[in-house]
Amino acid sequence: MASVEDRIARLEAEAQIRQLVARYCFTIDDRDINGIRALFTDDAVLKSADGVMNATGVDAIMAQYDGRFAVLGAGHHFMHDIEINFAGGGNEATGRVSGHAELWRAGTMMVAALRYDDVYRNSAAGWKFASRTINFLYYVPVDQYPGILGAPDRNRAYAEPRPADYPESLPSWIAYERARGRG
Questions:
Q1: Which uninterrupted H or E stretch holds 45?
Q2: Rounded-to-integer distance, Cα 148 and Cα 177, Å
Q3: pLDDT, tens digit, for every residue of 60-94?
Q4: Is 46 in contact with 132 (CB distance < 8 Å)?
């Protein structure tokens, strides 16, 4: 059994990671460029499951955000559930985060449901993102929101609709559907 000190350290680390995830939302929405940069390790990776976003290194990540901010107006990101799993000696952890965003994109009010697959690393400056992959359940103009979960092409942030990143591609979803003769 872990010592009381080890258990407290784990709880403190988890609280710090949760703060990191919250800071991400505020710094992105506030366009706090220095704050965003401080969230990532120097060698971090930021990508999207659909491959549109794919940057390695904090400078490339910041350039990628600059490109995204060029088409985004005001927005509100908020996270819901955070699952954190520690690996090895406790200086690295993985996580899944679910959330929503309300966004003004290319002159259109849009809403998105999303998940992040994260790797967190403890550094001299505290916990940071070492890797972050964004996955979309949907990303649609508000007027297309009703009934969106009934369509497979739920990512409508681009000129041509694209398939959603999840859940249809998840092994558990595929196995469930196959077991019922639907896959």
A1: strand 40-48
A2: 20
A3: 999 999 999 999 999 999 999 999 999 777 799 99
A4: yes
